[in-house]
Amino acid sequence: MAASFELFAACQPGLEFLLSRELQALGAEPRSLPGGVAFQGDAALVMRAGLWLGTASHVMLRLGQFPCRALGELQRKAAQLPWRTWLRGSVPLDVRATTKASRIYHTDAAAERVGNAIAEALGTVPPVARPGDEQVARVHVRFRDDVCTLSLDSTGTPLHRRGYRLEGAKAPLREDLAHALVLASGWQPGTALLDPFCGSGTIAIEAAGLALGLAPGRLRPAPLQHLALFDQTAWRAAQALPAPTTAPAPIHAGDRDAGAIAAARANAERAGVADAIEFHEVAIAAQPWLQPGAAPERGALVTNPPFGLRVQKGDRLLPLYQTLGHRAARLGASWRVAILAHDVRLARRTGLMLQAAFTTRHGGLAVTALCGTAEARPARQTPAPDAGE
Ligand SMILES: C[S@@+](CC[C@H](N)C(=O)[O-])C[C@H]1O[C@@H](n2cnc3c(N)ncnc32)[C@H](O)[C@@H]1O
Fold first, then answer.
1. Which of 35, 37, 44, 89 lies at a CB distance of 3.0 to 4.6 Å from 124, suitable for a disulfide?
2. Is the CB of 204 under 6 A from ligand 1?
3. CB atoms within 10 A of CB 380
4. Are 53 and 59 in contact (CB under 8 A)?
5. CB of 30 closer than 6 angstroms to any ligand 1 atom
6. What was the pLDDT predicted at 243?
7. Under CATH, which architecture does the 5-153 domain have?
8. Ligand 1 in contact with 191 (CB < 6 A)?
9. Topology (CATH) of 175-212+249-381
10. Percentage, residues of the chain above pLDDT 70
């Protein structure tokens, strides 16, 4: 029987509930914790998770845990672990340590001792990982209250770096955050989706991947590929999971900036979803689906308008948010809306029926996903201009 590990999928704080749902869909029994989700499984599940999770940034395997108060003890106990079943001696090794409230406080010494233990167990000294190495065995040593936990990072480059977004636009959204916004919006893949402020196209590209049944990690190297834990049969099974659908997904992405549209198109090409997205170089006021009666019957408007700090400043954006609200209300109650906002009060000035779905951080700013239906809020619920949020 394949070895089972304690696993931890890390995510941006605030996204845990979405990640938990994704893991459930992969057959795991998730337990949400701050900053991620714990679950249990074998190397096959690690591969499935690395390939299919859209909101995670790393998947870690716990290799061992033991009480430890001295460096000699650390090396001796670590060398007893079955490193040969996990790692390969030819793959560069990177050991990192953190310690808190423990007799072993010297992180470099702890990392060195674990490196020695691994070399002893493998019968060879693995090369030291250098910056830029693509394939690295990354082992984390964590001391808390004299208990040492050893974990393996199955991910390497964070999972949100999908590999398609080489062309940036102003203030691009992280791919995992765009994915989370699409999931939180309540959009049903196969129905219409519109991002009228698409920038480099991240939201539309993540949605198109969902609509076509494509794995978020499809352009990345296979998880664990360079380690002894890798299992070719399990990897093939992971890739085959849901049958990709070829059903047309009506997705529109607009931006008034020609450079943004060019970048979004190039990113969508690389992601293999360009045929599923229609790009429009157009300002929100002229967005085709936001003209009276022009939109498909059902869908979701999912967007990340200029924040007011990174792109433009403060109150000057009020007319833009009011236009967004006015145009979006034309879509009606059969459309969902999700707006990622830094200034929640400004986003409320759209006048739409919106509720906070999650709050996280993006580029050093607190951002909130406001979700609801594309209907104007009844007048009596409109908050006073200075209502605090
Ligand atoms: C925060 S960025 C969107 C970033 C995008 N989510 C991404 O991942 O790259 C906001 C975008 O809104 C566009 N924009 C600003 N005012 C607009 C308007 N009136 N109509 C359409 N697009 C506009 C900007 O050109 C910018 O690309």
1. 89
2. no
3. 5
4. yes
5. no
6. 62
7. 2-Layer Sandwich (3.30)
8. no
9. Rossmann fold (3.40.50)
10. 93
Q: Is the CB of 321 under 6 A from ligand 1?
A: no
pTM of the model: 0.93
Using CA of residue 354, residue 357, residue 361, residue 362, what is the dihedral sign?
negative
| Per-residue model confidence as pLDDT tens digits over 105-115 | 999 999 999 99
Chain centre to alpha carbon of residue 117: 34
| Lookup: tokens for 329 | 């209300």
Cβ 283 under 6 angstroms from ligand 1 = yes
CA–CA separation, 323 vs 143, rounded Å? 53
What's the gap in Å between 173 CA and the centre of ligand 1? 11
pLDDT digits (tens, 9 = 90+) for 100-141: 999 999 999 999 999 999 999 999 999 999 988 888 999 999
Query: Does the beta carbon of 206 lie inside 6 Å of ligand 1?
Result: no
Strand order in the sheet with 93-100: 31-33, 36-41, 5-11, 56-67, 147-153, 137-144, 93-100
Lowest-confidence segment of 158-167, 182-191, 238-247, 287-296 by average pLDDT? 238-247
The CA 305 to ligand 1 mean position distance, Å, reads 6
pLDDT of residue 16: 98
- Domain residue spans of the chain: 5-153, 175-212+249-381
User: Is residue 270 within 8 Å of residue 209, measured between CB atoms?
Assistant: no
* Nearest CA residue ID for atom 27, ligand 1: 199
d(CA 37, CA 17): 9
